[in-house]
């Protein structure tokens, strides 16, 4: 399947597919004339990539752990290894710190509005 058809099938733009390829996340075969040729397995891979991006992982981390991704009846999951667990814990800690910072900013803003 060529890139425009594959983009429509997966709901990902052709530009995003090229980006995934540039980052080493997706490696489609090529036709004899050099066009990208995507398979059903590539569609599964794109779903895994999208799930990992939606969870807050960057492409470098995804590239490292993409082979840990599994897709089944309940969607995409990751087989945990100590290094991946550490990455996910670090991401969660950064999110919690950012959330605390936003909460404090909201508290200060509320104080300004009340004249405190």
Automatic annotation (TrEMBL):
A single GO molecular function term of this UniProt record: DNA binding
Annotated HTH merR-type domain residues: 1-68
Keyword RNA-binding annotated: no
PROSITE patterns in alphabetical order: HTH_MERR_2
InterPro entries: DNA-bd_dom_put_sf (IPR009061), MerR-type_HTH_dom (IPR000551), MerR_fam (IPR047057)
Pfam family, one: MerR_1
Keyword annotations: Coiled coil, DNA-binding, Repressor, Transcription, Transcription regulation
Positions in coiled-coil regions: 81-108
Designated name of the protein: MerR family transcriptional regulator
